[in-house]
Specification:
- By secondary structure, this protein is of the alpha+beta class.
- It is flat, with a radius of gyration of 25 Å.
- The longest helix is centred in the C-terminal third of the chain and has 17 residues, at about 270-290.
- The chain has helices at about 1-5, 165-170, 190-195, 200-215, 220-230, 230-245, 250-265, 270-290, 300-305, 305-315, 325-335, and strands at about 5-15, 20-25, 30-35, 40-45, 55-60, 65-70, 75-80, 85-90, 115-120, 125-130, 135-140, 145.
- It has a four-stranded antiparallel beta sheet, with no helix packed on it. Strands 5-6-7-8 form a four-stranded antiparallel beta sheet, with no helix packed on it. Strands 9-10-11-12 form a four-stranded antiparallel beta sheet.
- The protein is built from eleven helices and twelve strands.
- Among the domains are: about 5-90 and about 100-140, Lipocalin (Beta Barrel); about 190-285, no CATH class.
- One of its GO terms (cellular component) is HOPS complex.
- InterPro entries: VPS16, Vps16_N.
- GO terms for molecular function: actin binding.
- This is VPS16 protein.
- It comes from Psophia crepitans.
Length: about 350
């Protein structure tokens, strides 16, 4: 069937068996495998009267059972191993128990994508809705958190200049004259290091450090290649810079380990940039924690400065009337990161 009708769409999912893949063919039939390492393609039951691709579909896996959930018009279908069943066969507006919330986005165009999201160890669900130039987080209340300057039309949501909505979502609305700029900065160092088959100095240094941990002679080969081109200082700087763009602590540590490994082979490499990056990432990772909820990028953090960040935290906690409290906290924070 795949050879005759081709694959219209595919989705990757994860189960206790491993990584699975589900496909929708040109005949509007679904097939899936729950483990690509042990490839056994299973054909799902046919959806009655399906003459065109569903408006959206997803793969759900729980308790060793994998099903396909799909929407056709105003109907919702579940496909399991043996049958196709209708979940909703009435208009969404009158479906009891199916509605999370209602809100007005003031956007006429339908969204490009909607994705469930949930904080770690939390039962509160929300939906992220994306258009071409707007992103909105919708929860089980009439309020929404937009991620650009467009008005949501929802009560209780202040209109802020572009880039300040991110801090508003964390309850830290920037004060007048101190905008939190959110203009995207290309993460060139990260792109250079992590792109496929990259030969960038930072990519080679990262591989050298990984091979060194494995006690492999390949570490010396990678390192020699960088040193022969006299690019070792650039490789170290590239790894340090790339760490600032990454949000996963494990990736940050991997890049910083590579930078630390590389600077051991450089005479009199100035340590200030490496030390400062370690300090900045400790602060960023702390405020990005879901219990704090301030997802600043490195660029935002540097433009905001730690003094302004602490000042806004004090303002949010209504501590601003205590004279000098933000300065005290700033000195304390600088002391702690050292």
């Amino acid at each position: 069937e795949v050879l005759q009708n081709h694959v219209l769409e595919a989705k990757v999912f994860h189960t206790e068996y491993g990584t699975g893949v589900a496909i929708l063919t040109g005949a509007h039939r679904f097939s899936l495998t729950t483990n690509i390492d042990d490839l056994k393609l299973r054909r799902m039951p046919e959806v009655p009267g399906l003459q065109k691709p569903p408006s959206c579909w997803a793969v759900l896996s729980q308790d060793r059972v994998t099903i396909v959930l799909l929407a056709v018009g105003q109907d919702l279908y579940l496909l399991d191993n043996t049958s196709c069943s209708v979940v909703v066969s009435e208009p969404w507006g009158s479906a009891v128990g199916e509605k999370l919330c209602e809100f007005s986005s003031s956007v006429r165009a339908p969204p490009k994508q909607m994705v469930w999201c949930m904080r770690p160890r939390s039962r509160q669900r929300a939906v992220v809705v994306a258009w071409d130039r707007q992103l909105m987080v919708v929860g089980n209340s009439p309020e929404t958190v937009p991620q650009d300057g467009a008005s949501t039309g929802s009560p209780g949501v202040p209109e802020l200049p572009a880039g300040e909505q991110l801090a508003a979502g964390a309850g830290l609305v920037p004060g007048p004259g101190q905008p939190l700029t959110c203009s995207p900065v290309p993460a060139e160092a990260s792109l250079e290091i992590f792109k496929i088959a990259s030969m960038a100095p930072g990519a080679l240094l990262l591989e050298a450090q990984k091979e060194y941990e494995k006690e492999s002679q390949k570490a010396d080969e990678y390192l020699r290649e960088i040193k022969d081109q006299k690019l070792l200082p650039e490789a170290v700087s590239q790894c340090i810079e790339a760490a600032s763009y990454e949000h996963e602590p494990d990736t940050q540590k991997s890049l910083l380990r590579a930078a630390s490994f590389g600077k051991c082979f450089i005479d009199k490499f100035p340590p200030e940039s490496f030390v400062r990056m370690c300090q900045d990432l400790r602060v960023l990772n702390a405020i990005r924690d879901y219990q704090i909820g301030i997802p600043l990028t490195f660029t935002q953090y540097k433009r905001l400065t730690i003094e302004v960040l602490l000042d806004r935290i004090c303002e949010y906690l209504r501590l601003s009337e205590i004279q000098g409290v933000s300065r005290i906290l700033a000195h304390w924070a600088c002391y702690k990161v050292r």
